[in-house]
Design goal:
Number of strands: 2
Mean pLDDT: 92
Strand order of the largest sheet: 1-2
Low-confidence stretches: none
Distance between the termini: 11 Å
Structural class: mainly alpha
Length: 73
């Protein structure tokens, strides 16, 4: 899939753990891992909005399109 997920980048910038992000967003660490590793088939706008609110970023900071390539998690 040509959509790359950069949640790891934002976690590092915010010095936040996956567990803390999952708790603050209100999703399970397992579901966050699926999203973070690029294995999710979809993401709800409410989840994306919560991620952006907690990480203080824009959706484009978390998701990007890669032409012709496989997404890296």
């Amino acid at each position: 899939m040509p959509i790359a997920v950069d949640i790891d980048v934002m976690l590092a910038k915010r010095k936040m753990s996956v567990g803390e992000l999952a708790e603050r967003v209100g999703i399970t660490p397992a579901n966050l891992a699926v999203l973070k590793n690029g294995r999710a088939k979809a993401v709800r706008f409410t989840t994306l909005a919560a991620l952006c609110e907690v990480l203080e970023c824009q959706p484009g900071d978390l998701l990007r399109w890669e032409a012709g390539g496989a997404a890296e998690g």
